Task: inverse folding
């Protein structure tokens, strides 16, 4: 298989939610919630020195540090930053992850950092970010599929296709039915790249056998055609 085209993989039609767009959407919702009570928490910290208060303050601080970096990340996703500025942004995100790794803001920063590493073609570095992220017990059901999918992309970029298929399978298991169908396309693609055309074809046909978001069936049909196979008659 030729080198993975990052732009081709991520710039799907609008109905497909990429890692980047879901990261930004999550951050807008959650960071706003965290930053909203910053003043109140500061007053509480001044009055009460309990463990719970300290943890709340730490999350507020993490979110405050992450907010401007995430604004720059959104610009990078939109293609407004050149490679040098994107690399600098990745370094800035890395600093946030070192300070607040397991807080909600820290998890968010690590997800964005992994995505930037992917955009720079830094497969090994991206793999390390996503591998540690998938091991976080506090990751939650919303971020888990994104982290496993990012790991799959990093492994695919490094041409570790069998491992990429396993990562995509975990992303499918963690995702809802609609996003899971999209991730199955990725799993089938790396199975084909690994030489397992039969398994890839079975997965494409399984996708076609169920309702899916607009465009998913078309992509599965096109992939089958690229393998020299006919789609099911009923599709």
Result:
């Amino acid at each position: 298989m030729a080198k993975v085209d990052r732009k081709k993989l991520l710039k799907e039609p609008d109905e497909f939610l990429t890692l980047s767009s879901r990261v930004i959407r999550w951050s807008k919702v959650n960071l706003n919630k965290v930053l909203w009570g910053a003043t109140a928490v500061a007053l509480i910290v001044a009055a009460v020195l309990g463990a719970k208060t300290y943890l709340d303050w730490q999350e507020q601080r993490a979110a405050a540090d992450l907010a401007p970096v995430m604004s720059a990340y959104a610009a990078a996703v939109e293609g407004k930053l050149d490679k040098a500025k994107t690399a600098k942004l990745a370094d800035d995100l890395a600093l946030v992850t070192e300070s607040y790794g397991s807080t909600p803001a820290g998890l968010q920063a690590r997800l964005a950092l992994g995505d930037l590493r992917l955009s720079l073609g830094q497969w090994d570095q991206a793999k390390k970010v996503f591998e540690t992220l998938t091991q976080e017990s506090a990751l939650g059901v919303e971020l888990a599929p994104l982290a496993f999918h990012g790991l799959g992309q990093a492994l695919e970029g490094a041409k570790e296709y069998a491992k990429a298929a396993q990562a995509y399978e975990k992303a499918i298991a963690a995702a809802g039915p609609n996003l899971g169908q999209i991730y199955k396309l990725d799993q089938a693609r790396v199975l084909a790249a690994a030489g397992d055309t039969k398994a890839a074809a079975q997965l494409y046909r399984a996708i076609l056998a169920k309702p899916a978001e607009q465009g998913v069936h078309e992509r599965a049909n096109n992939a089958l055609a690229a393998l020299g196979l006919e789609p099911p008659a009923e599709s």
In short: Residues 51-77 form the longest helix (27 residues). The mean pLDDT is 77. The radius of gyration is 20 Å. DSSP finds twelve helices and no strands in the chain.
